[in-house]
Amino acid sequence: MVNLNNSSTGLDYNNSKDAIIENNTLKNNAIYSSHFNGVYFDNSNGNISNNNITGYGQGVSISNIKNVNINKNTISENTGTGVSIGNSSNISVKGNNINKNGCYPGSSAVCDGIHISNSSNVDISKNNINNNLVYILSMVVQIMLL
């Protein structure tokens, strides 16, 4: 378990295999409209579960990914998007609390509960998504909402 306070990017994984991120508290980057992420995956795979991610630019950001599970996290009060998925496939987003994510006035950042672009086979189910500027923005080939 990791407790990170007042850091830039919380956990950053690049070109990693079978990463497991669970039972962590990541909070208070506290830079308005920042591009720092609570958890960032690029060209990696694994599981992100049972974490509390608060106060970053984006809560969870993944890109160029195959096979990632984002389950049972609390992702809240980030200045940008709660969960951002880009250029990825076979992604599961289940059982998360995604609340109060959104931009500060004048920001040009993307500010959604969940933002998906250029991705396929994304399963979004059984999440609580509340009080975000936009709930789900999707520009994908295949998405399944349950």
Automatic annotation (TrEMBL):
Lineage: superkingdom: Archaea
SMART domains xref list: PbH1 (SM00710)
Bilayer-crossing regions: none
Occurrences of domain Right handed beta helix (ranges): 5-132
Family annotation (InterPro entries): Beta_helix, PbH1, Pectin_lyas_fold, Pectin_lyase_fold/virulence
Record-linked Pfam families: Beta_helix
Protein name: Right handed beta helix domain-containing protein
Organism whose genome encodes this protein: Candidatus Methanobinarius endosymbioticus
